[in-house]
UniProtKB/TrEMBL annotation:
This is t-SNARE coiled-coil homology domain-containing protein. The keyword Membrane applies. PANTHER family: GOLGI SNARE BET1-RELATED (PTHR12791). It comes from the Eukaryota. SUPFAM superfamilies: SNARE fusion complex. Residues 44-106 form the T-SNARE coiled-coil homology domain.
Length: 136
């Protein structure tokens, strides 16, 4: 175990492992371009990368904002459409209620004769369907 520890301790010394290798400046980035005083080029590179990332994030935020505005518009339009549908169904319900009321009044005045007419028409309808079906 102690040999292993000594081996890893010697691995941490870069100059012992790679004598011709020069360590990069303190910024942690190496560059093929020449160095300026105090690592200014590396700071400029990092600043440029930060600006690129910031522009990317701003574009994503704008996209999310557009999506949420679109969702809000869709919700408002759907609410209006549902309100109109509710009004239309209420109107239709009133019309059907009036129609059924008039039909019941008519049926009460005529007695049961209308029932026999409906039964007769239903039998005739099914007869025509039966004949048409077997004629094909």
């Amino acid at each position: 175990m102690s040999q292993r520890y000594r081996a890893t301790a010697s691995l941490h010394n870069r100059s012992a492992l790679l004598p011709e290798y020069t360590t990069p400046p303190s910024s942690g980035r190496s560059s093929p371009f020449g160095l300026q005083a105090n690592g200014q080029r590396f700071a400029d590179d990092l600043e440029g990368q930060n600006d690129e990332h910031l522009e990317g994030l701003q574009a994503k935020v704008k996209l999310l904002k557009d999506i949420t505005i679109g969702i809000g518009n869709e919700v408002r339009e759907s609410t209006v459409q549902l309100s109109q549908m509710n009004d239309a169904f209420s109107e239709t319900s009133g019309i059907l209620a009036g129609t059924f009321r008039r039909m019941n009044n008519m049926a009460a005045r005529q007695g049961c004769r209308w029932l026999w007419y409906i039964v007769f028409l239903t039998i005739v309808f099914w007869f025509f369907i039966f004949v048409w079906w077997f004629r094909r």
